[in-house]
Write a structure and sequence with these properties.
Largest sheet: 6 strands, antiparallel
Strand order of the largest sheet: 11-10-20-19-16-17
Oligomer: single chain
Structural class: alpha+beta
Low-confidence stretches: 101-108, 224-256
Number of helices: 8
Number of strands: 25
Amino acid sequence: MRRGPDPGKIYELSGETIRIGRGSKNDIIIIDNEVSREHCYLTRIGGGYQVTDLESSNGTFVNGHRVKETWSLPAECLIELGDSITLEYKFSENSKRVAQVDEANNAPDTMFLVVLVNSRPTPAIYPLDGYQIYVGRGTDNNIIIVEPEISRQHLRFTRTKDGYTVEDVGSTNGTILNTSELEQAILIGEDDIIRIGKSVVMRLTTKPDLYMAKKNTDLLAQEGDHRKDSTMRKRDAQKSGSQARTTQATTRTVGTGIEPGGLLDSVYLIYARQDWEHVVAPIVDRLYQEKIDVWVEQYLTPGGGDWQAANEQARSECWLLLVVVSQEALESEHILKTWRHFHNREKPVILILHEDVERLPIGANKAHKIVYNALLPESSLKQIIHEIKQRR
């Protein structure tokens, strides 16, 4: 346990199934209000474990990504239960040897999509665990990537007996596979590189832990070298005959992935992470459609050095603050500190009231307030856009 009621406590994983929760019948009992009575469980798979969320109230996260179904755990990853519990999943020397033998004897079934984005310091990693997986900016996709160059529904992965195919589904900016425009479904493997515009690079892997500790700037440079040295594999009848074109990825120069001064025209949006999927992601998506630059911390690990540096830069440079107000958000010292920073410097603040709260902090009377109805969001989104444009 890295953070929680018993910091430093070690839980040895030895059973086939290990249940985690607040209730007394769990194998690992964690007494904390963020933890549900039956929160999640671990299942042994080969030499390691996978985690399954049990529809917990505050969610289960692996390296910052919410677990919606089942997620295979890479070595040295962080598991978060809600916002207050952080567990570090590590292999002992003996289990490492078991995992290595298992890897040698069994081809892994689970593929992962590694997504490198210029505006983020580290890669995002998603398991491909369905027959068809849609990727796009809209919240109805299986993998949501909120970036301006990605369409609401951009591409689709389909599992076949030979592996996964990738297909562009009518995106605005198109998809480049290695050096060619993707015009039809093509079988892909670990040697292939997918590019969208100048900011997004993707590839498949069976070893996501190889990417966990690296920064995007380093990985993007490696992808460039790989691209120069590799040639496209032969495709049976699937290879596109279109004119190949090269899309060079531009990289940023600082650890946060943001150049100094890069957020001066941006809106800073803060929120409790449990509100991301149903409230925050639709707001960010709509702001991108309106060509309003918005910065969020969703893809940074809370408390880390990059997270701290990026948030300090956002507080200093962003010209307006949007706060998604919920009881969970008002219990976050980070959110309250950011709010006070903008209030004390008389920079504009807009409060998006997502749920009823007992009391708003001092200074809330000076901020503009918008009631957000997640079931009927359109009116609220129009108000948010109008108020931002009024203050530009």
